[in-house]
Amino acid sequence: xxxxxxxxxxxxxxxxxxxxxxxxxxxxxxxxxxxxxxxxxxxxxxxxxxxxxxxxxxxxxxxxxxxxxxxxxxxxxxxxxxxxxxxxxxxxxxxxxxxxxxxxxxxxxxxxxxxxxxxxxxxxxxxxxxxxxxxxxxxxxxxxxxxxxxxxxxxxxxxxxxxxxxxxxxxxxxxxxxxxxxxxxxxxxxxxxxxxxxxxxxxxxxxxxxxxxxxxxxxxxxxxxxxxxxxxxxxxxxxxxxxxxxxxxxxxxxxxxxxxxxxxxxxxxxxxxxxxxxxxxxxxx
Length: 285
Ligand SMILES: NC(=O)c1ccc[n+]([C@@H]2O[C@H](COP(=O)([O-])OP(=O)(O)OC[C@H]3O[C@@H](n4cnc5c(N)ncnc54)[C@H](OP(=O)(O)O)[C@@H]3O)[C@@H](O)[C@H]2O)c1
What we know:
Elements: E1 2-7, H1 12-20, E2 27-32, H2 42-51, E3 56-59, H3 73-94, E4 97-103, H4 126-141, E5 145-150, E6 153-154, H5 161-169, E7 174-178, E8 182-183, E9 186-187, H6 188-201, E10 207-210, E11 217-218, H7 219-230, E12 235-239, H8 259-264, H9 272-284
Helix pairs in contact: 1-6, 2-3, 3-4, 5-7, 7-9
């Protein structure tokens, strides 16, 4: 029986993985939340790995507060860079295969066509830089790793754009949403399925992959589709990023080319609108 450790066990991606565990009765999953396993503390990481042999580690733990990272960069680097390094080192010592999640924010957004795994990175905020440095630590330490860059992750769990829009619509008749950043919303439930497929296949196609839902939109387009699908009469007004200043700059374009993962794992990646419908159904279940 395979044993899998999932770090960041209470985050939205980890919760989507948890929901799928019933489909994999032959796998033993251990979900470790921030309290049980702080990935930035090498001693705690060692202690958890000393108790059990893990065949795989899925790293869902991350510092994900993009704007706050600008004012507490040490914390972002400690978790996203050093935490990734701690996991890579312990995975190497224990022959554990690591699946790590990264982000479209490693790019500067100046591109005009979907980013490949080989495209040049150039993060424009602290979060993106800390995530890129985490990737580099893993690539330095390990051969048996998968790094999956994803974008605009949302689900029925936790804090994300879908849930924020629905919450704000309760007290606002009109919402202003940025219409000059282009990307691909990705349902974390779809990403969770792909992660488990990689483990099931165990085909040793190690390396860096992009994964997002198909198609692209802006945050405004994403919000419009949310209200189209959920009904209600919230009006969405398009604005420019200039009108919605945030502490961290965001890439204007961060669409990912997912051909590599699609071909390697024979995936049919759903369009973002199809997956949004699925997520909303789950949210209301
Ligand atoms: N959300 C997005 O739009 C997006 C886009 C692209 C890529 N990603 C990447 O996708 C992955 C999953 O993101 P997500 O949306 O599921 O994030 P999330 O919901 O914020 O979950 C991250 C989890 O990590 C935990 N954590 C934070 N610091 C930790 C530490 N030192 N040790 C252990 N756990 C720690 C958090 O716990 P606490 O809350 O208790 O600190 C939280 O439960 C991350 O690698 C993220 O960078 C996310």
